[in-house]
């Protein structure tokens, strides 16, 4: 799930790679011999001067939410069919003045886009670079969880190391 979420973060913000990650979690609900945590919380720090918080818990089905908090307001994507932008929580003079729906952007379905690009040789909406970028974020998060410490990504050397 995190790979889809962080891909969206990169798409919306234009950021490419997180600088560092810390992750906590564990097997709190499904004690069935699994090694993958059923509950996890990751913080990704970007040099673009923002922080991303991702959490998931497979022990509760109460729904989920996705919100982007900025200095001038909030983009609430919890209902993907009706995202809303507002100035909620902001005291910035340039904040979003009124709550409004985000107009839809017509795009082909992900798999349709991919198949069309196979035929046409054009770049898909989610190209290999985007895949690499969100894979780095997920691996960075996993290494922070497994290692129990903050991990840092160096895009020049393409290396993940302890902070």
Describe the model.
- By secondary structure, the chain is an alpha+beta fold.
- Helices cover 26% and strands 27% of the residues.
- The chain has 3 helices and 9 strands.
- It has helices at residues 2-13, 110-120, 128-147, and strands at residues 20-26, 39-46, 50-57, 67-70, 73-76, 84-86, 100-101, 151-154, 159-162.
- A hairpin with a 3-residue loop joins strand 2 (39-46) and strand 3 (50-57).
- Helix 1 crosses helix 3 (128-147).
- The chain is globular.
- 13% of the residues are buried.
- The model has no long low-confidence stretch (mean pLDDT 92).
List the helices and strands and how they pair.
Blueprint: H1 2-13, E1 20-26, E2 39-46, E3 50-57, E4 67-70, E5 73-76, E6 84-86, E7 100-101, H2 110-120, H3 128-147, E8 151-154, E9 159-162
Antiparallel strand pairs: 1-2, 1-8, 2-3, 4-5, 5-6, 6-7, 8-9
């Amino acid at each position: 799930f995190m790979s889809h979420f962080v891909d969206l973060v990169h798409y919306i913000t234009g950021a490419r790679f997180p600088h560092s990650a810390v992750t906590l979690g564990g097997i709190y609900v499904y004690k069935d011999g699994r090694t993958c945590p059923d509950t996890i919380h990751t913080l990704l720090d970007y040099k673009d001067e923002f922080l991303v918080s991702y959490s998931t818990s497979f022990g509760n089905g109460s729904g989920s939410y996705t919100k982007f908090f900025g200095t001038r307001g909030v983009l609430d994507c919890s209902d993907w069919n009706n995202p809303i932008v507002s100035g909620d929580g902001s005291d910035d003079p340039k904040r979003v003045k009124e709550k409004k729906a985000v107009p839809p952007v017509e795009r082909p379905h992900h798999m349709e886009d991919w198949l069309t690009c196979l035929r046409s040789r054009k770049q898909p909406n989610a190209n290999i670079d985007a895949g690499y970028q969100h894979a780095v974020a997920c691996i960075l998060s996993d290494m922070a969880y497994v290692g129990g410490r903050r991990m840092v990504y160096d895009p020049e050397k393409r290396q993940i190391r302890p902070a």
